[in-house]
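Intended use. Records like the one below are meant for learning the mapping from a protein sequence to its folded structure. Do not use them to infer anything beyond what is encoded.
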Amino acid sequence: MNSGVPRTILHWLQSLDLIFPYKYPKRDLADGRLAAEIFNHYYNNQINIDMLYSSPSFKHREDNWKQLQKFFNKHNINVPESVILPVLNCYEEGAIDFLKYIYTLLTNKKIIEVKREDKELNIPHYAIPTASRVKKCVNGDQIDMSKFVKKHNEFTKKLKEASISVNNLKSKSDENKPKNEEIKIKSVKVFQRS
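Structure written out for the chain above:
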């Protein structure tokens, strides 16, 4: 429910006391009736929501959005078609982007989003699949597996860099040590063994 929708937008939607539900943005915004109700709140009920179709068919949704675009043009509201089309086609990210767009348009406030690390970055090194496991996963999701392979390659690269830097430090420290200390250490080791 409401995954990906910023908290500020959820509070904003709750403050509008909307009739239509907004639990699942991609489904609830697709027919345009929720968007019409949001704009009605700001434009004094100038959209007749009863004239919009409540059918899930693409033809009716498209007709609803055409009516909304007429309203946008009449009131000089800049809502580009590139923002509307993903909503009309029920894309999750499209619905969230549309909500963000109309929030900034209607409230003149910017959305401050907290950047979270991707799930792929939180994978521990022992959970990264080996090359043979990746080969065996024929029916798996190729996008996810490519992320795992990328993470696996990054991890091995970091390990190699770390081992090279440690080896460089050891060799530099060995060069700086006087040879007398090496002899003392060897003699202590011999003494401890016997």
